[in-house]
Amino acid sequence: MKKRVAAVLLLIALAGCASPPTGKLSSATPAMAEGGILVDAKRITLYTYDSDKPGTGKSDCYGVCAVNWPPFPVASGAVPSGDYTIVKRNDGSTQWAYKGAPLYYWPEDQDPGDRYGDNYQNVWHVVKP
């Protein structure tokens, strides 16, 4: 049993090492349009939250909200440009914003193309660039 768990954890860790699509992303453009929505380098759907006020540089999603809707983190040394900005969170961490709106994941989206969080409680939405 322990060997199986270790093997699964290793596979999960290796899956996180996939490289982004070439020519479409950089540290300044952390996401891309695919299928009419914004996705990360692993092609996982990104969302916005209606309670966030775009352009304020702040997120309204903390505590349980941030556990359920993890912020799209900024890699160390990344520099924003164009439509991408960086939001500093209350805990000092940073997350990407697109056109001023902080970006999040929905944990149930595990594969490219998943959009299970779209219109969740009528306040979470896929980003349509």
Question: Which features does this protein show?
Answer:
129 residues; alpha+beta; three-stranded antiparallel beta sheet; 2 helices; disordered N terminus
Overview of this structure, please?
This protein has about 130 residues and is α+β, with helices and mostly antiparallel strands. It is about 15% helix and about 20% strand. It contains two helices and seven strands. It has helices at about 1-15, 65-70; strands spanning about 30-35, 35-40, 45-50, 85-90, 95-100, 100, 125. The protein has a three-stranded antiparallel beta sheet, with no helix packed on it. A hairpin with a 5-residue loop joins β4 and β5. It is globular and about 30 Å long. The termini are far apart.
Please outline what is shown here.
The chain is an alpha+beta fold and 129 residues long.
Global morphology: globular
Strand order of the largest sheet: 4-5-6
How many strands in all?
7
> How much of the sequence is in beta strands?
15-25%
* Alpha-beta content class: alpha+beta
Radius of gyration: 15 Å
Taking pLDDT < 50 over at least 5 consecutive residues as the criterion, the unreliable ranges are 1-24
The largest pleated sheet is described as: 3 strands, antiparallel
Give the CA-CA distance, first to last residue. 45 Å
Mean pLDDT: 83
- Helix and strand run: HEEEHEEEE
Number of helical segments with 4 or more residues: 2
Q: What percent of the residues sit in helical stretches (DSSP H or I)?
A: 10-25%
